[in-house]
Amino acid sequence: MVKINGESLDAAGRTIAAYLAEAGYDVAKVAVERNGEIVPRAEYEEMTFCDGDTAEIVSFVGGG
Amino acid sequence: MIPEREELEAALQERHGKELQERFGRAVVAVCGLGGLGSNIAVILARAGIGRLILIDFDRVDLTNLHRQQYKAAQIGMFKTGALADNLREIAPYAELETHTVRVTEDNVCSLLQNTDIVCEAFDDARAKALLTNAVLTGLPGKYLVAASGMAGLGSANEIKTRRVTEHFYVCGDGVSEVTDDIGLVASRVTVCAAHQAHAVLQILAGE
Question: Given this model, what pLDDT does residue B34 score?
């Protein structure tokens, strides 16, 4: 299982890009933290979630 | 009568303590976006005695900014960088100010921000927020990024929080309150969020 934004999900083996698309995120508005590090955008297509990973998707909304 | 540099420094040291004030005085903080968040962050940090502020925005002061941003009616039409620098010099005459009237892009972000200790993300556009966050945290290792997301409307000010996402990444806001056609930015709630960001900067510098 992968813990994403505090929730245990069956996302192991999926790429970050695939997970973001499935979960309905706009890739242009997010930052992805995985195991304490920010994942570079260029790695979303290749990097897969592994069993035991902890991740957070920070999805920005407009206003400032 | 403008006080001498030494008088102002002594007053700040009396409030913050000598060691902490020396840290604030040595710090370089960049504020990216000088709207409701950024103009208020910059005023707080200048008052707190941050030594050098890098102010970045491409836009001009507009009539619709005055209800929440640190500009004056007579400054409508000026670039925000110049207008805010003028206002900050009246507040903190010895703060060093560096201004860049540009749009932050993937291409210029590293050169604009390479000399800062901490970057405040204070844009209004969600894509620009994400671009800056990703660029700083993956392209400029060791720098801190204090971002904001979700501060529109008249919801409770108590919903605005500071969260630490990674060692170098903080996000302030409620995470969800977006600007829409029905709901805009209200001075008090945006300023609460700006104060959270400025406070995170001071806490980072203090090592809290």
Answer: 98
Tell me the average pLDDT across B161-182: 95
Catalogue all structural domains in chain A, each as residue range(s) with its CATH number: 2-59 (3.10.20.30)
Of A26, A31, A64, nearest to B133 by CB-CB distance is A31
Using the Cβ of B186 and the Cβ atoms of chain A, whether some distance falls under 8 Å is answered with no
Residues B2-32: tens digit of each pLDDT:
999 999 999 999 999 999 999 999 999 999 9
Interface check B145 vs A, CB under 8 A: no
Distance between CA atoms of residues B49 and B40, nearest Å: 15
Using the 8-state DSSP alphabet, how is residue A48 labeled? B
Query: What's the gap in Å between the CA of A43 and the closest CA on chain B?
Result: 11
Q: Of B36, B148, B166, which is closest to A33 when you measure between CB atoms? A: B166
Residues A11-63: tens digit of each pLDDT: 999 999 999 999 999 999 999 999 999 999 999 999 999 999 999 999 999 99
CA distance B164 to chain A (A): 11
Task: For strands B118-121 and B28-32, give the pairing.
Answer: parallel
Strand partners, A30: A59
ipTM of the complex as predicted: 0.96
Q: Chain A interface, mutation test: which of B133, B166, B178, most A Cβ atoms within 10 Å?
A: B166
Which of B124, B127, B167 lies nearest to residue A64, judging by beta carbons?
B124
Calpha distance A54→A34 (Å, rounded): 6
| Residues of chain B contacting residue A37, judged by C-beta atoms under 8 Å apart | 166
Helix (H) or strand (E) holding A17: helix A16-23
Per-chain mean pLDDT for chain B? 97
Q: Give the integer Cα–Cα distance in Å for B113 and B100.
A: 11
Task: Find the mean pLDDT for residues B155-170.
Answer: 97
Protein fold of B20-206:
Rossmann fold (3.40.50)
